[in-house]
Design goal:
heterodimer, A: about 160 residues, mainly alpha, two-stranded antiparallel ribbon, 6 helices, B: about 250 residues, alpha+beta, Glutaredoxin, five-stranded mixed sheet, 8 helices, 5 strands, Membrane protein (chain B), Thioredoxin-like_fold (chain B), oxidoreductase (chain B)
Chain lengths: ~160, ~250
Amino acid sequence: MHWGKAWPWISTVARLGLSAVFLVAGALKITDLDESARAVNAYRLMDYDTAKVIGAIQPFLEIAVGLLLLIGLAVRLSAAIAALLLVVFIVGIISAWARGLQIDCGCFSSGGDLAAGRTAQYGLDIARDAGFLLLAGILLWKPRTRFSMDGLLMGER
Amino acid sequence: MSKGNRDRLAAKRIVEQQKAAERRRRVTIWTSVAVVAVLVFAGLIGWAVVAKQDSTDASKLTTPTVAVDDGTAFAVGTGPVTVDLYEDFMCPICHEFETQAADTITQLIADKKITARYHPVAILDRASNGTEYSTRSAGAAAAAAEGGKFSEYHKVLYDNQPEENSDGLDNAKLIELGKSVGLGDAFATAVNDKTYTAWAGKVTDTFSSRGYTGTPTIVVAGKQLQGSNGSIPTAAQLSAAVQAAAG
């Protein structure tokens, strides 16, 4: 099989996978924005009023990025924004780890401090986010995908 | 094919290529603009939702008249050392702390060594299948405080703590427990009317804005008290911290 022909399909899988990641992550937080605010606050990187705004905006942004990737609009830019968000999340987790905080990363949940006796899984969280970053990287490199708005607008068959 | 014909075809192909490139460029620009617009819009929605929620909460806020600390806590005792206890009625570790330290706290209050300030926060609403037990129980505790029975009700709620991730106690049960400690109709009305729901949100916000993120959080004379290895403090550690703060 010719790699040149395979790339659009590989990229399509990456696009839909990354889309699902963002949609799920956003949907799990959007139902309780107060909790989302507390999850951001648990990182202790900003005051609570700021955390509240970030915590509210974040799930909406995640869902928007997820939808944009789903329909495949400006895939390279969408993937770049997804990658940027992922980098911010990874930096946040590393900083929590470095400061010895015991928190749930709040990646796919509402997060917060861990109950006594439970240990944080920062290494796993970072590895998982790095995997998602790889998907975004594929799209940055090869943004042409099947079943996308981009393809439709460009007049590709 | 004549030379002129070939040239014309070549020229036509170049024009078509230029047109296609122009189209790609246009599509890229406009789709990028659309993406940015969608993201800005999504961010604005999130911001607007929170702003609206804040103003709705503010308009619905009923602060219990007996509450202290900017209306976010209930004080028990009159001792010189302030002990702040931030607890969620759904939190099993709070229950654990209460089980092992309640007698000590009661004694410290009776000995006029401490003023205990209870902050009923609601951070575990997700753990009651959507019935928001944390908020409902915190609101009920506020109603009990208005009825002069905070300590009694606080104790009975922990004695009857529901399992995490169950429906929690329903309002009828919350009222029944209130009656068992001598609360009356005003209490029942406040529970049923959700009078202190917004207030529970304010207590929780205050807790978060002070940089606390988990329950129970125990603060002795302004200093957070933690057990060894980040576990909950023991009754002995609490007594020692109070002793130290009293000087």
